[in-house]
């Protein structure tokens, strides 16, 4: 479950997407609602990196609509059988437009100004001779380069 701190659905905890959610969606727009798109693993196999779709899908009108656009980091547990969302690197794109409210098919009406809509996240291993363990802080660094891992994401 990507909405809880523990990764266990219904445990009552609130995960990192809640703090990174858009807050201008109106009363009927859900927060803490990550919408993963593409996924890639870190070289050490300890984390998965997920692209999170935004509240205003730009590629097509569909239900891939989420409240915390950006990149999510999932820590894998129990030999990769389970995991938990440990961080969200929030992206933003609030350019002025004339769209007004957005109502994607199968989604919720969104009345805010956020147009960020991440479509992919790719992890690239740089140093073949020395595989280091990536951790959440290195993946979330400002330069996005640490422990031989670069994180790239496509924002439309």
Question: How is this structure best summarized?
Answer:
The chain is mainly beta.
Tell me what the structure shows.
This protein is mainly β and 156 residues long. The chain contains two helices and seven strands. The protein has helices at residues 16-20, 136-139; strands at residues 36-41, 47-52, 70-77, 82-90, 118-125, 145-146, 149-155. The protein has a four-stranded antiparallel beta sheet. Strands 5-7-6 form a three-stranded antiparallel beta sheet, with no helix packed on it. The longest helix has 5 residues, at 16-20. The chain is globular and about 45 Å long.
Outline the low-pLDDT stretches: 139-150
- SS-based structural class? mainly beta
Q: How many DSSP-defined strands?
A: 7
Reading the helices and strands in chain order gives HEEEEEHEE
Please compute the radius of gyration using only Cα atoms. 16 Å
Most strands sheet: 4 strands, antiparallel
Shape category: globular
Head-to-tail CA distance between termini:
26 Å
> What is the mean predicted local confidence, pLDDT?
80
Major β-sheet strand ordering: 1-2-3-4
Oligomer description: single chain
Present the secondary structure layout.
Elements: H1 16-20, E1 36-41, E2 47-52, E3 70-77, E4 82-90, E5 118-125, H2 136-139, E6 145-146, E7 149-155
Antiparallel strand pairs: 1-2, 2-3, 3-4, 5-7, 6-7
List keywords for this structure.
156 residues, mainly beta, three-stranded antiparallel β-sheet, 7 strands
């Amino acid at each position: 479950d990507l909405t809880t701190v523990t990764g266990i659905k219904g445990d009552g905890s609130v995960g990192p997407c809640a703090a990174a959610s858009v807050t201008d969606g109106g009363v009927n727009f859900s927060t803490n609602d990550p919408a993963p798109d593409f996924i890639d693993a870190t070289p050490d196999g300890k984390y998965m990196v997920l692209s999170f779709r935004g509240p205003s899908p730009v590629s097509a009108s569909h239900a891939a609509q989420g409240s915390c656009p950006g990149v999510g980091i999932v820590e894998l547990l129990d030999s990769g059988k389970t995991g938990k969302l440990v961080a969200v690197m929030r992206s933003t794109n609030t350019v002025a437009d004339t769209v007004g409210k957005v109502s994607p098919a199968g989604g919720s009406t969104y009345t805010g100004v956020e147009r960020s809509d991440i479509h992919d996240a790719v992890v690239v291993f740089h140093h073949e001779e020395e595989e280091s363990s990536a951790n959440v802080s290195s993946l979330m660094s400002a330069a996005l380069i640490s422990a031989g891992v670069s994180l790239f994401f496509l924002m439309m």
